Amino acid sequence: MKMKLKGALISTALALGVAGVSPAFAAWEPTKPVEFIIPAGPGGGADQMARMIQGIITKNNLMKQAVIPVNKGAGAGAEGFLAMKEAKGDPNKIVITLSNLFTTPLATGIPFSWQDITPVAMLALDQFVLWDNVEKPYKTAKEYIDAAKAAGGKFKMGGTGSKSEDQIITVAIEKATGAKFTYIPFKGGGDVAVQLVGNHIDSSVNNPIEAVAQWRANKLRALCVFDDTRMPYKEKVTDTQSWYDVPTCKEAGVPTDYVMLRGIFMAPGVTQEQVDFYVDLFKKVRATPEWKKFMADGAFNQTFMTGKEFRNWLTLNEALHKQLMGEAGFLAK
User: With a threshold of 0.85, does the pTM exceed it?
Assistant: First the structure.
């Protein structure tokens, strides 16, 4: 009896000790408003996505703290990326990334690499579309490129920034087709679409989300998409066309393709528990009907990656951008 009693007392004491010393720990979550850095100007694809995410989080009460989008687009996004690099250990900052994550350091030589910050998740891959104004006589990409060839460099191609994705695609089109363009950089994709509607430029290589409103209003024409497969969305956007109806540029005789990252990163020096919070948060965002509609409206490729898979993708695409920019003569010397 003594042995049993002693064992029972010891077990009870241990149980009380564990309960008293090691209470259940709540998972980490932000303790103050989260600054959501956008390394691009207002109105463009990154800005629209970040503000859509903010709205989804707020509407669905997905976290206790507020999310505050802040545009830091100076220096082709260098301002935003350097701000994240300098925020070491601060888990209350996140940044939405596009391919200027690669192009800006390569073009400018700023002391920054994607490895200086912490990858969280690839949210999607964004397409690029060759657009012209519906008032132009060119109904197909081939007709437009043939006219550009005949114009001998007089056609103006609008894009966001210099030595960035839009200009890289423009150079790739020139190399693939023999056409020449005068490239005109603007601060954001929203500006580009407005300039094309006003016939101040002849074409653009905007993302779908940056020009869908003007396309739906029958102001712009989608000539082709720079991917190896058509966009899967078959619901009509205009009176006559869905995103699926837009041919690939290869189909249209312009053998060029390019897709762009839409991802989330944190500052360096954060913990895995803090990263896991945001991975879980963005999984919740992606499950909402608002996000699914946004993906369809903007014709996104809905690839999602985290962890080692995402890091491997980043390594490969950094090398790809270095190659493309080297061929275009855009690398910093």
Answer: no
